[in-house]
Amino acid sequence: MNTAPKRTILVSGASIAGPALAYWLHRYGFAVTVVEKAAALRGGGYPIDIRGTAVEAVRRMGVLPRLRDAHVGVRRISFVDAEGRPIADLRPEALSGGEEGHDLEIPRGELAEILYGAIRDDVELLFNDSIATLHDHDGGVDVTFRGGARRTFDLVIGADGIHSHTRGLAFGPEESYHRYLGHSFAGFTMPNHLGLAHEGRTWNVPGRTAVLYAPRGGDRVHAFLSFLRPDPPLDAFRDSAAQRDLVAGTFAGYAWEIPRMVAALRDSDDLFFDVVSQIHMPRWSTGRVALVGDAAYAPSFFSGQGSSLALVGAYVLAGELAAGPDHADAYERYERTLRSFVEMNQALATEGSASLSPRTPEDLARRNQALRDPSPVLNSTGRHAHSALALPGYDAA
Questions:
Q1: CA gap 106, 111 in Å, rounded
Q2: DSSP per-residue letters across 366-377
Q3: Are 108 and 44 in contact (CB under 8 A)?
Q4: Residue 397 scores a pLDDT above 80
Q5: Residue 338, CA atoms < 13 Å, CB-side half-sphere
Q6: CA dihedral in degrees (311, 313, 317, 323; nearest 10)?
């Protein structure tokens, strides 16, 4: 009988990458602790995609049937001009390069709940807390939590998103790795004035995009206002009023549903404001600390692949850690396996930006002409990139 103590791993973040990683680590016999700064599991949020290789990752987790039940099944994306006149209707797969009948679109909160359900009885979960300090040494990683507790773990994995606090502690300031893609955006919910159901509607003028998205139906829709800006609006990040003023001013004077959207933005209690950006790092690990998902390689929502990369990355990282006792070798194999797959999917953001947010009048005219093609696939490389990695097999999978 093997009586050696289990290796202990702290995972920071309980959104998507964190619970997926915790699931696989527990399955391989690690003692796992997940720490999450929120007081409880975060519900709500807009729908997110699981495509290509990531579908196989969730199948191996055993949660694919539940995810298929939660699939929203959006049927069309409509595009309108500056005055709201129709341009074209497309299947969502024409934009994403996705595969109808195979890929999934799940409300973020429902995906988080399903992943949480797969680990809640098997791993230690610490809500309303976070890492305050890390000290990496030959014997482990000494962690001080914001709540005051002090513990030592064999390894620490940051799965805490694009603005990862773990990355800041272990690798330094975000500015070294953050790549701004030239757009800022606001997301919120608002009344469904147009009666949309299982569809989205997209409005553009050069450098500005508005989207109303109703993945199922009902009296509320997801609203997005995105705009081109040469420099990130750093002054607005910590000031909700400044965010509302910036977005409202940027969209002042336009037609279609824009006035209603701006009014809803002003009154919103669920506003999310950020810039469209990616994370590019020369290495995803240092010492005993590693990163996974958006913390390591956020591809931006223009790629549509953030959640898929998180799920695949969690599977591969856990499998490599289980393959041998040397964490440094495992981290090297994790990067070697995933690096080209990540880079291919990050590159999709360029095509996604051209399709959803044309920058100039010429770009917009070319995009609209492409939409009028009888069978457009605007993100032509998407399907290949989504499935470019053959998921490795590990003993416990």
A1: 6
A2: HHHHHHTSSS--
A3: yes
A4: no
A5: 32
A6: 80
For residue 152, is pLDDT > 50? yes
Crossing angle of helices 17-27 and 306-322, rounded to 10°: 20
Q: Where are the alpha helices (DSSP H) in the chain?
A: 17-27, 53-61, 64-70, 92-96, 108-117, 165-171, 240-250, 258-267, 294-297, 306-322, 327-346, 348-356, 361-371, 382-386
Helix (H) or strand (E) holding 285: strand 285-286
Model pLDDT, residue 382: 67
Q: Tell me how far apart the alpha carbons of residues 393 and 49 are, in angstroms, rounded to a whole number.
A: 23
pTM for the complete prediction? 0.94
CA dihedral 157, 158, 159, 160 (to 10 degrees): 150
pLDDT in tens, 59-101: 999 999 999 999 987 889 999 999 999 999 988 877 777 677 7
Which residues, listed in sequence order, are joined to residue 291 by a DSSP beta bridge? 158
The predicted-structure confidence for 170-223, as pLDDT tens digits, reads as follows 999 999 999 999 999 999 999 999 999 999 999 999 999 999 999 888 899 999
